[in-house]
Amino acid sequence: MAARLWGAHQRRTAAEYENTRSRPLSQTDSVSSSERDSPRNPRGGVFYQLLKSYRNPSDSSNINDSSSTKIGTADSSGATTPTRRKWYNDPDKGSQETLSMLVGASRKLANPHETKNSLPEPKALRRRPGHKRTTSGRIMSSAEIREGDEHKIQMQIADILQRQRYITKMCRALLLFGAPGHRLEEHLRTTARWLEVDSQYLYVPDCMIISFDDNLTHTTRMKIVREVQGVNLAKLKATHEIYKEVLHDVIALDEALERLEHLVSAPVEWPAWLRIIMYGLASACISVSFSSRFIDIPVIFVLGTLLGFGQVWVVPKSRTFAVVFEVLATTVFAFAARGLGSIADGGLFCFSAMTQSSIALILPGVLVLNSALELQSKAIVPGSIRIVYAIIYSLFLGYGITVGATLYGYVDPHANLDSTCRNPANQYWGFLFVPLFILFATFINNAKLKQMPLMVLVGTVGYVVNFYTSKKFAESLPIAYALGAFTVGLLANAYSRFAHGVAATVLLPAVFVQVPGGLATSGAITAGLQTATALNDSDPNNSNDSQLNTIVFSLAANMIQISIGLSVGLSLANLVVYPLGKRRSALWSL
């Protein structure tokens, strides 16, 4: 079997080689429209273009050999019969003697008084013996053709490298600015198809493996793009504009590369101090969803500002602190909140509202949603990796809440044990505070001012739908999450289709509202408080381990339920607005 495959490969390679040798360079480089639409690019890669520079001299030498004057004729045996050279073509029959006599006669006419003996004997003019040029003659005759081909090949190599560099830069920008993970490969495949680059892609979280293939020489160039995935709504929209302009031939690749490099190196939209304050304001506004009271809002603002200081200022500067930041923050906040909530036996501050609101902005809602969307899109590798990480991350948060609340319980035997708030504010205050939360969240994620009104509108509509459907489907909350996600997905995709905007940038702030609201409705975060209460009240001789384990894993389970409902709703919205997908470019939505 291997011998047959090798023989077929050699026959095919020889046929393709002879075919390319018999065609002119212009025909070899031209690509028909049918070939351009095919996934296999017949133009070849860099290595193929380099091989052509070695092929051209031999081809031109063969042409020179065939076009040179033949001496003799070939008989049937293949041997050449030499013919007798003409007398006037004999190089040895020179005119040296005649030339010498002419020189002497001219000198004698010019000086008639000179004698014959006084005339100098003219030097004999020696000629270089003739010989037949072989290799050097062919090289010199093909030099002019080769120089032109070399310039053309250099231009083709530069064009191939430029297209590959654009795909790599676009991939890096998409990773940095928060493009949906389950659509990254689709974006890059669409770009490569229109740029006529034969390539393959494999995405794992925070890493894209790119393979640039050359099917004519059976070689591959590998590129690995590694970036920590973040969210920057303004730069994501700018990246989408560059992506569309390249696909529609509005700008050249030179300009696109320059704009991408400037976009990656440009500073963020808002300064660090403003985003730190926005963390505190956003935490204070979302506290209404966790049944807080107005007296709790100043304390929640302080805790949220401390969270923002650690997230924006400290984590980027210290890798060691970034590893333990989430667990440390939840432990400290739970400890402080339980201490404040124990004043006047819980009559002054609400322990559970302060704890849940202060960590709402580090909940892995978007992370779990991306994993659910990837698994739903059959992206098994990144979806599986991300869902496992999201579950462990949720357990870290639950662990921090449990440790902080339990430690204060051991310090103060009379600590407050209530996991709910007394006399909470009216839940309809959420219609005022939630739009403010979305506004502050857009500042945190570096959105432009002109993007914010639509984001606030879509997120508020989604919250209203989720608010009423969660009351209607109190026994089946994933249905309420799906309906809320379907509403925001429908509005965002309609904006993308009719106003040519970016649906993903509009959807992300709406998702930030859906996840904390869903966790507040399901009471998932209070599981850590219940665990702390059970640990403080447990009898060492009669402990119920199964009950404690159930409480600990409830946060991760509720996160997965919320994300499944959101992913189903968003997918249905995409199906309604784009039943057949987009014709030219990929779908920029969740």
> Can you tell me the overall shape?
elongated
Query: Which quaternary structure do these chains form?
Result: single chain
Spatial gap, N to C terminus = 47 Å
Number of helices: 21
Helix and strand composition category: mainly alpha
Describe the structure.
This is DUF1212-domain-containing protein. Pfam families: ThrE, ThrE_2. Keywords: Membrane, Transmembrane, Transmembrane helix. Its main location: membrane. It is a multi-pass membrane protein. With 590 residues, this protein is mainly alpha-helical. It folds into 2 domains: 133 residues, no CATH class; 306 residues, no CATH class. It is 65% helix and 4% strand. The protein is built from 21 helices and 5 strands. The strands form 2 sheets. It has a 3-stranded antiparallel beta sheet. Strands 1-2 form a two-stranded antiparallel ribbon. Strand 1 and strand 2 form a beta hairpin. Helix 6 packs antiparallel against helix 7 and helix 20 runs antiparallel to helix 21. About 8% of the residues have low confidence.
Short summary:
The protein has helices spanning 2-22, 25-29, 33-37, 46-67, 96-110, 135-177, 184-194, 233-247, 253-265, 272-286, 297-314, 319-341, 351-358, 365-376, 380-411, 430-444, 452-472, 477-499, 503-522, 526-537, 545-577, and strands at residues 73-74, 80-81, 199-204, 207-214, 219-226. By secondary structure, it is mainly α.
